[in-house]
Amino acid sequence: RVLRGGGKVTETITAEEYRRRQRGKFAPEEPKRPKYRNEKKLVDGIMFDSKREAARYLEIRQAEKHGRIRKLRLQYVFPIVIDGVRICDYIADFRYEELQHGGTWVDVVEDAKGLRTDVYRIKRKLMRAVHGITVRET
To answer: If you average pLDDT over residues 72-83, what whole number do you get?
Structure first.
């Protein structure tokens, strides 16, 4: 039934009708595309943020099996601290040690990048300034 009060026309509905309308109002829409158009990918039980990162992981695992790298770590967190103030964290996709021609092992910090955002560029520079680490991009 329709009620009139205070110049407004309002409609009285049942609780069931209210729930039905709410379901329609909040019905799931078409899934949104990720901001940077990346597609998540599951490899070895690990969910990677992009197909590029997953493919690079498989390459690194091969190198590890052949003894060219060791101590592989994923999503390694580097705190960026300046004058005792924590500014942010840099999360590297991969960190490992790589065998050089002279037989020495070198620490490598790597990021599988598709799109280099402004925030990423700043954090990459902070890694160099604060930790003395040059991030390898693949």
So the answer is: 97
* 85: Cβ contacts below 8 Å, ≥ 6 apart: none
Place of tokens 């910090």: 109
- Mapping DSSP onto H, E and C, the string for the chain reads CEEEECCEEEECCCHHHHHHHHHHHCCCCCCCCCCCCCCCEEECCEEECCHHHHHHHHHHHHHHHCCCEEEEEEEEEEEEEECCEEEEEEEEEEEEEEECCCCCEEEEEEECCCCCCHHHHHHHHHHHHHHCCCCEEC
Average pLDDT over residues 110-136: 95
Strand order in the sheet with 105-111: 69-82, 85-99, 105-111, 136-137
pLDDT digit string, tens, across residues 7-42: 555 667 788 887 777 777 665 666 667 777 788 899
Give the span between the Cα atoms of 9 and 18, in whole angstroms: 17
CA of 123: how far to CAs of 21, 35, 65, 87, 130, in Å? 47, 19, 31, 10, 10
Token reading at 78: 């580097």
Average pLDDT of every residue of the chain: 88
